Amino acid sequence: MIHNALAGKPLPIYGDGQQVRDWLYVEDHCKALMRVLQDGRLGETYNVGGWNEKPNIEVVRTLCSLLDELQPRADGQSYATQMTFVKDRLGHDRRYAIDARKLERELGWRPEETFESGLRKTVQWYLGHGDWVEEVTSGSYRAWIGQNYGS
Predict the structure, then answer these.
(1) Pick the CATH number of 2-149 from 3.40.50.920, 3.10.310.10, 3.40.50.720, 1.10.3720.10
(2) What distances in angstroms separate CA 38 from CA 27, 42, 77, 140, one per listed residue?
(3) What confidence tens digit (pLDDT) does each residue in 86-135 have?
(4) What is the DSSP string of 110-137?
(5) Residues near 44 by Cβ (< 8 Å), separated by ≥ 6?
(6) Distance (Å, rounded) from C-alpha 47 to C-alpha 30?
(7) Where are the alpha helices (DSSP H) in the chain?
(8) What is the pLDDT of residues 21-73, one digit of tens each?
(9) Structural domain boundaries of the chain?
(10) Collapsed DSSP state (helix, strand, coil) of residue 95
(11) Predicted TM-score of the model (pTM)
(12) Which of 82, 97, 123, 146 is 20 to 30 A distant from 67 in Cα terms?
């Protein structure tokens, strides 16, 4: 969504956008995995969740607001004008839920970032790493992989 927004492309939202997902900042996820590796009981299963359930439409609106603040469009319009509703996928689940209470109860782990702070950090990272985003989206990194690891 960030890449599409910055490129002036549509921001597709399936159906009515009310599908709910649990959002977790990447560094919190990594910290949770480290906690499980260090302190978890061998053979146990721990669900990692963010306690940040949000409908997709709210995620996109928040993202657009952050981009409006951090890198406004040249024409002065909101990135939200790029939002477009598309036909929903067949069998698209309305909600994915993660129960991470066991991870909190047994290992004392909870995410440090809120949905808003984690999304802000993510947007700031993308804005500060445009070269990386370009390499990934253009596929130019594949030449490096082929040269270094064979193709």
Answers:
(1) 3.40.50.720
(2) 16, 10, 48, 37
(3) 999 888 899 998 999 999 999 999 999 999 999 999 999 999 999 988 88
(4) --SS-HHHHHHHHHHHHHH-HHHHHHHH
(5) 106
(6) 13
(7) 2-6, 26-39, 56-70, 101-107, 115-128, 130-138, 141-149
(8) 999 999 999 999 999 999 999 999 999 999 999 999 999 999 999 999 999 99
(9) 2-149
(10) strand
(11) 0.88
(12) 97
Give the C-alpha separation, 20 to 51, whole Å.
12
Give the pLDDT confidence score for residue 116 in this predicted structure: 97
Place of tokens 């928040």: 62
Residue reference for tokens 């804005």:
127
Read off the tokens for 74.
């040249």
Contact indicator for 13, 60 with CB cutoff of 8 Å: yes
